[in-house]
Design goal:
This protein is an alpha+beta fold and 125 residues long. The protein has three helices and five strands, in the order αβαββββα. Helix 2 crosses helix 3.
Length: 125
């Protein structure tokens, strides 16, 4: 009986840990612009640096693989977006896994998207 409780406890702990780690792996940034502007900027950045393996414009999602390096395995990054209720901002989620390299990819990706949106804003004016 005690072994059964121990097994259930381990299963529950594993489920809780996987949910927490999954939430921690997701990087989020908020951008100013329409969903089309932010989506197009993000796709352009991904196409310049990687190869987009999946894209679905109606759901504002796409994914791209980051090739392995000598020091790390490859990553599969998924991007999703949602329009904020204010109608001016778009929240972007990037999920690449939990590693130092994933953090670097996310930081660079978000910076490049912001730069692309800044270029677009300058072209408008």
């Amino acid at each position: 009986m005690r072994e059964k409780r121990c097994c259930w406890l381990i299963v529950v702990l594993l489920v809780v840990c996987s949910v927490v780690l999954n939430a921690a792996n997701q990087k989020t940034a908020v951008f100013q612009g329409t969903t089309d502007e932010v989506f197009n900027a993000a796709v352009k950045v991904a196409q310049v640096n990687w190869v987009i393996s999946f894209m679905d414009r109606p759901t504002l999602t796409f994914s791209f693989p980051v090739p392995p390096t000598f020091a790390s395995n490859g990553l599969l990054c998924g991007v999703s977006m949602e329009k904020e209720s204010d109608g001016v901002h778009v929240t972007m989620h990037l999920q690449c896994g939990a590693s130092h390299r994933a953090d670097k990819v996310a930081a660079q990706f978000f910076k490049d998207v912001q730069d692309e949106l800044a270029k677009l804003a300058k072209q408008k004016h």
